[in-house]
């Protein structure tokens, strides 16, 4: 099926398993569109939203909340993590299911500033963002830069 709404053309397909095929049974409707003039294609920025989970670096485990929003042709947002408490602002971009983010953060608990770089992949239909991270600056606990991994679930 195809239809027009708000000046954009949508293509919708019915997808799912069948009782005679070796795939799981299911009924799904998938809608696809291309960006319209002056519009942001929300499918391009599936990473926009709030994610919670944890980051691990060295022996540290940080409970994390990442809030991302589309900003024109890029992504921006905030990050907050615990043990030690820290927060910062991030900017970056998304290409397909890959997300790159960088930005400064501040830890009042450790009285230091640093920088964070993340590269993650959206998985599980966009509900999971996982990948690697790198901390640099005086807040690093090991030999700078500290590297690690993260796994964040969409709230």
Could you characterize the architecture of this molecule?
With 155 residues, the protein is an all-beta fold. The chain has two domains: 2-33, no CATH class; 49-154, Beta Barrel (Lipocalin). It is 0% helix and 63% strand. The protein has no helices and eleven strands. The protein has strands at 2-5, 8-15, 28-33, 49-57, 60-71, 74-81, 86-95, 98-107, 112-123, 128-136, 146-154. It has an eight-stranded antiparallel beta barrel. A hairpin with a 4-residue loop joins strand 8 and strand 9. Mean pLDDT is 81; it is low at 38-44.
CATH class of the largest domain: Mainly Beta
CATH fold title of the largest domain: Lipocalin
Helix content class: under 10%
Sketch the topology as an H/E string, one letter per element.
Answer: EEEEEEEEEEE
Q: What's the CATH H-level homologous superfamily of the largest domain?
A: Quinohemoprotein amine dehydrogenase alpha subunit, domain 2
Tell me the domain tally.
2
Outline: elongated
Approximate strand percentage: over 45%
Rg over CA atoms = 19 Å
Content-based structural category: mainly beta
| Average pLDDT for all residues | 81
Number of helices: 0
Largest sheet descriptor = 8 strands, antiparallel, barrel
Q: Which short descriptors sum up this protein?
A:
2 domains, 0% helix, Lipocalin, single chain, 155 residues
Short description:
Helices cover 0% and strands 63% of the residues.
Provide the fold topology.
Elements: E1 2-5, E2 8-15, E3 28-33, E4 49-57, E5 60-71, E6 74-81, E7 86-95, E8 98-107, E9 112-123, E10 128-136, E11 146-154
Antiparallel strand pairs: 1-2, 2-3, 4-5, 4-11, 5-6, 6-7, 7-8, 8-9, 9-10, 10-11
